[in-house]
Design brief:
The protein is built from two helices and five strands. The chain is an alpha+beta fold and about 80 residues long. It has one domain: 2-Layer Sandwich (SHC Adaptor Protein). Strands 1-2-3-4-5 form a five-stranded antiparallel beta sheet, covered by helices on one side. Strand 3 and strand 4 form a beta hairpin. It is globular.
Length: about 80
């Protein structure tokens, strides 16, 4: 039973450890260009590892509210959801 708990804990930690990281200056510039094209600005940017999503912006301010964005490696917006 203890071994199962240790394995579950290890899997949980490894899954969250590789999820997000900082963006480079060039990535930030391209991410902001994509967000500004949606008439939005700001937000907290980070890299993502998983599936098609390469970047995430949390709490970007838009005329119709505050949104989170997910972008692919080419800085195309994959989703826009209300924060």
């Amino acid at each position: 039973m203890k071994i199962l708990a240790i394995i579950a804990l290890a899997l949980g930690l490894s899954a969250t450890a590789a999820v997000a990281g900082p963006v480079t200056h060039d990535q930030a510039r391209n991410i902001q260009a994509a967000i500004v094209a949606q008439d939005c600005y700001g937000g907290e940017m980070e890299t993502e590892s998983g599936g098609n999503v390469a970047f995430e912006v949390e709490d970007a301010v838009c005329p119709d509210g505050v949104f989170d964005f997910k972008l692919d490696r080419d800085f195309n917006i994959l989703s826009r959801t209300k924060s």
